[in-house]
Fold:
Amino acid sequence: MHVTTALLLAAAHALQVNHIFRRPTPFLNEKNTFTEDDGYKLLEGHREKRFSVAWARDLLRPPKPGKLVLVRHGESTWNRNATFTGWTDVDLSERGEREVEHASRLLLEAGISVDVCYTSRLRRAIRSSWILLKGLDAVYRPVFKSWRLNERHYGGLTGLSKPRLAEELGEARVQAWRHGLRDRPPPMPSNHPLDVSSDRNYADLESTPRTESLEDTMQRALPLWRERIEPDLRSGKTVLVVAHGNSLRGLVKHVDGVSDEAIVDVSIPNGIPLVYSFDRFPSGDLIPHRTEQSVSAHVSGAFLEERGLLRAALEAEAELVRRVPGHLRQTDQPAVRALAKLELERKLIDLAADPSRLERAVERSREKKAPAVDALYMGLPAERVVTRIPKQSTCQPAAFAASDAIVILRHGRTEHNKLGLFTGWEDASLAKEGIAEAKRAGQLLRAHGFAVDAVYTSWLSRAIETAWLALQELDALWVPIIKSWRLNERMYGALTGLSKKAILGEHGEARFKQWRRGYTTRPPAASSFSPSYPGNDERYVRYLTDVRYSFRESLVRSLASGSLVLARKIPKAESLKDCMDRTIPFFTDEIYPRVVEQRKSVLVSSSENAIRGLLMHLCDIPSERIAEVEIPTGLPLVFDVKRRCLRLLDDGRYPADPAEALARWNFGTASDLLFRPCVSDDEDDECAAELPDPVLRLAEVPSYLEDTPSPSVDDMVVGALMGAEYMGG
Structure:
């Protein structure tokens, strides 16, 4: 090893200098430079790294440039019927979803892993990026949503049928608007029903375009390339860009230096990744690497599949689904599927003991086409529903600004939750009930008029997906999502993935309670090479850089591999206190000053023990009682920052009596510590008069909340049986 390199590596390992290396965030005012945030400041700001071995190595020898992966979003509902779409925020069609799922499999086959993702502020691109990252098991990677990657603005043509317009105005005129480099369609009038200039997701822009040529679209994407994407590629990161036909053509034109004449003939089909590799000049500039697979003389990148094959594959998959329902819907690991089926069978045995009860459940499911699992309400099903007429309160959302609120949301249920397994850092996905809970949480927030400016979540997919689904219901997919391992669930060590019931039987109640809820007691540690140890998970090995190196773990891994391995001190087990020692500082040092103090509204989507830490801090809960707190899955808890109290959101089903309202959910034996009277330093604040009601009451319940009743356990069992592939059966 070179002497200088060895010295730098030693310094990184031994000194752990707390120096911050940040990439500057561009907010310039010159033409074609940044005047907006796009969430970049929030996403990059919290990544304050210690002195890094990788940084030291890259300083001496620049890394090989990363790959650039361009993916056009899947077919949208307006693509399907040949409508000019532009900035209209339409969703993916079912076929579009399948196209993007197929694209993720192509990337997997090619061995491409993603370090960072860029997408537009339009839902068809954002949802495509979700599907791709989920398929690549990379939902924890940062995603930047920039208007600069939006589709071309088609002005007054937006919403019109392409074939119909060609009939009326002539094919030549319409084709010039569609494919001409500098032809702009007629501008969109300010009173156009599809005008987005006043939409909240573009509030940070001085103005939005009224119409754009292809050249305009390409030019606005260039600053994003120069200031963000290209530096990421230079640092060796693989960059995924999920955008639209015209904004992607702009990137291709710049990367390959395609002429004005040739670019009009370049097209990028939906759902087929276009992959670029790069070489580096001595000057540091990147040059695209040409191969035999390059698309053409003009385009150096290579498609991962020929055109037309995707359509054939999707048709074959649809046929397979028709013949073998559920063939692609296996959930979690085989052991989890087996336990889930066992639990279902036990419930069925209980249900079958009463034939009339079983018949009633079956009839309800037939009438509603088995919506039981899909329509499951948050947390445990309510045993009774109180019918009442909501009354107007002086403390309604109009008097309760979203900027004064912190919305805390425990992820929806997983199969692990349902079966009583220790989950911890194991990356369990949402169960079908959990998906419904997350959607319901978003609907509740929408009903109460909450608008979210930023989302903080963990690196665990169950929390990230819960945030996605809630934002989807809020029509706010463009909101920045900041992901940090410091919001992960408590690390349960060697207990991870094991049955709580089995641990209780084997070790006794006293030991079980200490391991599960002891404030300072850690469960047995995972071994260095256990599958449940995060030190063997790529996401933590590659990207967890803000903890010191571990001499012991480095020694163990170096001896095992026969070469020098520097390993970070990733937890092998955590007590409740350990979990809170990383969660509370993250809130006080990052979330609070960057969002809450700036009077921005924030949603924190995380796991139960991380949320216990937040509530311990916000509600001043003593450490000796924090283990008593239970957090229902999928239930939004709203902390009023100004009045320092926690509130629930009315859905039309809460009893008028506050004690009965709280009894609807299991908050453990510490609900008195969670739901205290509100206080305020403002003597004129009518909403701070020691309110005994913990529920923010709605004056009127929206129909979309009324139409989703809480199902009984019987309905859930029958619903699962009628969709048996969900249970892995």
Remarks:
- The longest helix spans residues 214-234.
